[in-house]
Records
---
Amino acid sequence: MYIVQVASECAPVIKAGGLGDVVYGLSRGLEVQGHCVEIILPKYDCMRYDHIWGLHDAYRELWVPWYGGAIHCSVYCGWVHGQVCFFIEPHSQDNFFNRGCYYGCNDDNMRFAFFSKAALEFLLQSNKRPDVIHCHDWQTGLVPVMLFEMYKYHGMEHQRVCYTIHNFKHQGIGGTETLWATGLNQESYYFHYDRLQDNFNPFAINYMKGGIVYSNYVNTVSPHHAWEAHHTDIGCGLGHTLHLTQDKFAGILNGIDYKMWNPELDSYIPYHYAKDNLADKTLNKKALRERLLMQQADKPLIAFIGRLDAQKGVHLVHHALYYALSREAQFVLLGSATEPGINSRFWHEKNYLNNHPDCHLELGFNEELAHLIYAGADMIVVPSNYEPCGLTQMIGLQYGTVPIVRAVGGLVNTVFDRDYEQTKHPEERNGYVFHQTDNYALESAMNRAIQLWYQEPEEFSKLVIQGMEYDYSWNHPVEEYLGVYDRIRHK
Ligand code: ADP
């Protein structure tokens, strides 16, 4: 099969979070199965060019209709760790992708409407006719809308769209100007509850809703989150739309790329290890402490890695840090915040704890350090308010780092409480789970983990190994996506 992914991220060249990991990992997983995959991305100025091999201009004269005229673009091609990627660079005064950031600009809606249009124009003009176009998140929600309302009539009538939602919180809600810019025009037609009209703001259009309504298949990234999005307010206003389209909506659990995330091969960690030589994991713990100037002590090391965002339960992350210190455990935090209030709170905390021998806060995005933390920590805490899938607990399991998670979204599908999970045999349990969003709930789970580490080290090692035995690679999800592609292709 010939599959084209259209996305705003692809790890490690463009990565703000899990979306990047998924676009890369899924593409590689599909190629390993013998399918042809190409990835279309914006050419941002701030992406990691050092992860692209053989970048060259592949298509110089791409003219993308925009308002009444057209914007001239160049399309570059290169390999990102073996995957073919096309990067679209518009030459216009808008400077859509030369902003020193991926997201967070006032005209994000316009930037990604343009990207979606340019991706379709590129497919059309370069005569690429994939069986399936796989789009991701709000940034590419207009792709199926434009495909089935416009491009279908210009030679792309056989293409089908799979649309994956990684986060319902960001939907691309905005005014009508993008309809005029992209050539969809006809405001009154699209401003309809059955099409792009936002479910709450009758004067706004909603890209993600468009993606859901127009795509041949829609999924989010875990079965439990699919249920939550459909039946609770976690769907952020799209629950009814999902209800109306439930026949084509489901949850498919993400995988992690076992070539990128593998303690036996990882080039970012000093000591490779597997479940039969866990002693070498301890050497990574030592190396991590050395690097972060923490004391070498007989204490468990607990980590948090993730965006410091309300989604991630920052109040509980903060509490986890102090609770760990009060319980003779060490704590390492690696996170970046885009919200100024959260950012300054953690900078304050970092300064306050600067010389503390048992903790370290690293504020920013650091892929290399993340690998060392997964390898060196004993436990990883994921106290999210909501979590569509969550990758850090799965990476933690793969690195023998016991997850302590809140029971939401994909965390429910991947972590099974050592003491209480009834659906799994004790030998199949792999971490600790708590339910409420208060400090006590978190403490009760952390307490059980810390106690086991101190009082029953052999039992703790058993739990570590049980976690490492889980297979959260892309093998299984790739099969599920292939089943979906096959079904929609023949419709
Ligand atoms: P989300 O997509 O909501 O950000 P996920 O758990 O799905 O969360 O994916 C997070 C990914 O981003 C993981 O690969 C994690 O290691 C990585 N990550 C998050 N924050 C950082 C950071 N500050 N530095 C390095 N990697 C990070």
Note: Residues 17-19, 21, 305-307, 334-336, 365-367, 370, 389-392 surround adenosine-5'-diphosphate (CB under 6 Å).
---
Amino acid sequence: MKIVCLPGDGIGPEVTAQALRVLRELPLDAEVAELPFGGAAIDASGEPLPAATLAACCGADAVLLGAVGGPQWQPGLAESGLLALRRELDVYANLRPAGDLLVVRELVGGLYFGARGVREDGTVFDTCEYHPAQVERVALRAFELARARRGALVSVDKANVLDTSRLWRRVVTEVGRQYPDVEVRHALVDSFSIEIALQPEALDVVLTENMFGDILSDLASGMLGGLGVAASASLGDAGPGIFEPIHGSAPDIVGTGVANPTAMLRSLALLLDHAAERVDLARAVESAVDAALVSAPTRDVGGEATTVEFTDEVLRSLEVAVS
Ligand code: NAD
Ligand code: IPM
Ligand code: MN
């Protein structure tokens, strides 16, 4: 299979390098091409998503991505490359597992992609828009996932205020009729955030729109191990998915060698499962990472191992599993 690796910025290259070390040890016929993306691509060519990078992603079976952004670039410019890539690949369903819960975040609509601008009087605006079909397709994905899990889905919105949320609630309710085996609950995002903070393990699938999903998935991962361990898979209907940690470029620790590669390695496991259809290898990587979290934790999870030492430990357990 063809994998495009986009290391990006900050700790992005530090953690993608570990994922490639692990990938090389797996019995999988994978051809990897690394391409410039984000701030690194701005420095090299003036734009965050160069045409050659996009073309390579479109022609790949999967995209393995580190992180983008940092204080050295114009605010939002490196990030705009990531948004454009998600949109171009139409990866509308962003799966963000944290502990036993799974956040399903709509990824290519809402406030991130609505009309924006500046009016003559200086007012700045971003608009939130959803088409019913955009809600329907991500809801179908979330119900399918819920059916294969514990069969409980909470749809999170702000239907007491926003029209887009009232649309969201109506469409999710309609889709839910096709899934009598899944128990659906609708919750308002403000009070629901307390549930995630206090009882994350009581939840199964959490379905929500783009912006709420961004915030709630960081909150959920913060309650269940931290940003350093939380992975994601962004999937469309056809074409390559994007597999990336939910954390960013961590400018505060870049270059110190302490970044936790767990989120990146778990993203590789999601790639092995969803794109390579090698659930056996995905499980092997997950188990090796779980073992390393106990035997050689990095600083963010209470240990002293460096990024490279953690991965050495992963490779040691993996050797036994895949040989
Ligand atoms: P961040 O996730 O980069 O960092 C938040 C905190 O978590 C920091 O203290 C950081 O050191 C820590 N952290 C994150 N990942 C870690 C890891 N693997 N190991 C150990 N500690 C880790 O969030 P931020 O500081 O709000 O954002 C920094 C930059 O990253 C911004 O430019 C933002 O736009 C960008 N960003 C990019 C992505 C992405 O590429 N998908 C995601 C989030 C943020
Ligand atoms: C994430 C990030 C991105 C988002 C930014 C960098 C555009 O925070 O992947 O969670 O908000 O989607
Ligand atoms: Mn985020």
Note: The domain at 100-223 is CATH 3.40.718.10 (Isopropylmalate Dehydrogenase).
